[in-house]
Amino acid sequence: GEFSTFDPLDPFTPEGGFWVPWWSTFGYFNPDDYNTYVSLLMWTQMFFSAVVLVNLQVAMFAHTFERVEAASEMEYNTMRAHKLFEFRFVVTQTPPVFNAPIIV
Closest by alpha carbon to 37, among 21, 15, 14, 13? Predict the structure, then answer.
């Protein structure tokens, strides 16, 4: 016997109208093969998918910004302390021509 029967009008087959939004997410669709209802369903699903993905991206950017902002003051103070230490103890106070005996 035949284990699989292919009915082109069955919406629940992999090529049927029920799966069109899923396949259209990956760019695989042919609008001529489907009726108006399926095309409307496909475009509605794609629109809401795009809105949800953009919303997710904005939320991720906001979360990253909050993490960076929370650590920014401590990082600024650390970098400032390193610069002050460098100018106080590492960089010499005399101009380059006169500091040769000090450096050597």
Answer: 21
DSSP string, 3-68: S----TT-TTSTTSGGGHHHHHHTT---GGGS-HHHHHHHHHHHHHHHHHHHHHHHHHHHHHHHHH
Query: Within a 13 Å sphere around the CA of 2, how many CA atoms are in the beta-carbon half?
Result: 3
The domains of the chain are located at 17-103
The radius of gyration of the chain's CA atoms, rounded to the nearest angstrom, is: 32
- Can you give the pLDDT of all 104 residues of the chain as single tens digits? 455 566 666 767 776 667 777 777 777 777 677 777 777 877 888 889 889 999 999 999 999 999 999 899 999 999 999 998 887 777 767 777 777 777 66
Instruction: List the structure tokens of 88.
Output: 């106080």
Question: Model-level pTM?
Answer: 0.49
Instruction: Specify whether the CB–CB gap between 81 and 68 falls below 8 A.
Output: no
